Amino acid sequence: MAEGLRKALILPGAGARGAYQVGVLKAIARLLPRHARNPFAVIAGTSAGAINAAVLASRASNFNVAVGEMERVWANFEAEQVYRADNWTMLKSSLHWLVALVFGGLGVRNPEFLLDNSPLRGLLERNIDFEHIQRAIDRGYLDALAVTASAYTSSRSVTFFQGAEGLQPWARVRRVGRAERIGVEHLMASAAVPFVFSPVKIGGEYYGDGAMRQRAPLSPAVHLGADRILVIGVRDERPDQEPTDDTVGEMPTLAHLAGYMLDTLFMDGLYADLERISRINAIIEQAPKESLTGPVSKLRVLETLVIVPEEDLRDVAERHVRELPRAIRLLLGGLGARNRGGQQLISYLLFESGYTRELIDMGYRDGMAMEEDLRAFLYDQPTDTLDARFDIKQDLLFEIP
Fold this sequence. Notes:
It contains 14 helices and ten strands. The chain has helices at 18-31, 48-58, 63-75, 87-102, 118-127, 131-138, 184-190, 219-223, 254-286, 313-320, 326-334, 343-349, 353-369, 371-378, and strands at 7-11, 42-46, 144-151, 156-163, 170-172, 175-179, 200-202, 205-209, 228-232, 303-307. Helix 1 links the parallel strand 1 and strand 2.
């Protein structure tokens, strides 16, 4: 990479909400010269964010072209490109689960997942040239690509990274970084949402969605040498109004619980990481530099910038839910996805062009609304110390390497 601050891009898990990340990336491309190469030394992603990260890494020589290709795919999405949604497949899957429940299991023929995402594998193989990732690294367009998945047997968060010489693997409590050439299996594993999609075998172990055990989503970027980190989240941070004592609450449906689980997996770890780090940074800022000795002397100060949607994506999903295939709508309806709580699940599974295009437009608007901050981030200028939309300090981040 060129001289200057080593910038990292973090793309958390997102499901269909990953279209929002494309919109923000489109705004970033607008702020760079037309033929500029990838501005991020490190690109790290989880679940759908891992797929977006791999696309950027494979086309790192021209950032504008990379984002344009991503927009082409996301803006023309159909659910059938991600999972099988025809009536016959859904009927077989539903009957399979029903029979297994009625008879207390079917032995080796027990159902293992709700949706067949084999179409996603084909989409990735057609649209990502994994050989280009190493070429981008060799030519200095990128230092590292990192993809995180959750190992079921060893119960660890595993970050697979492909990068330049000198980058070292790491090991912490139940999270490790492993140097490995990234391929379609790593992306499929990172996006294998539990119960929804099938686990993926890499080496001798099965893996699932990377968000499940990812307690420190910013850690891969730190270990891989980043000085500045940009995070593109997929959830607005205005909580729903707390009900009063006399409010008649609704019992959570299966769809509500599933959406709640996905929302927790994809985003809560990120904010816990930021909050925990910002508190300790406040202490470090006030500590005399000469007092930082021993292991503490290795602490590094990093700048972070977080962009999240201004609008609740459940509201956007509600406007487009009828675009889903009828079989999927029936399945989600049976799980109780017609109420407000169920919209959370729909917002992650709605891989349809009307919805994804609106999210791309929203991400672009939100990115351009933060043009001043993004320019400062991209061009190594001082950044503001507090983003007014958050109650936590975000400009400083540290980790013991």
